[in-house]
Specification:
It is built from three helices and five strands, in the order αβαβββαβ. The chain is α+β, with helices and mostly antiparallel strands. The protein has one domain: 2-Layer Sandwich (Alpha-Beta Plaits), CATH 3.30.70.970. Strands 1, 2, 3, 4 and 5 form a five-stranded antiparallel β-sheet that branches. A hairpin with a 5-residue loop joins β3 and β4. It is found in: Cytoplasm. This is Regulator of ribonuclease activity B.
Length: 143
Amino acid sequence: MYNLEGLRSETDEIIENLLKDGSDPDALYIIEHHVAHSDFDKLEKLVVDAYKLGYEISEAEEVEEENGKVIFVCDIVSEINLNAELITAQQKELLPLIEKAGAEYEGWGTYFEDPNADDDEYGDDGEFFDDEDDDFDDEPTHH
């Protein structure tokens, strides 16, 4: 069972730091909930459930831990306002799925949004998600 109070405290701190650094409070943010599992098939079932709830999913990667054990990681992604209530609501929705799958929730991350940017870095339509290509090449900023 995850400590929602602790997660909320982390969320408030991440948001506070982003805004203190000058990130745009009114922008839409890419929120990436990081999950890991030692069993690829179980991770796949988890992300299918998250996808059915309307989330996008990054491509799973195989990672070797320091102890030599292999785990699989991916992100459950949405695009929302930088709002602690919304992020907490997503965690409340996702954590039961993550626990049921036996996966590990590794927190969330997002990207700095420059309030002075001339144009939308995601293209003219303002959409981060491109139906043709679901690969995410940029690394998120984690606090």
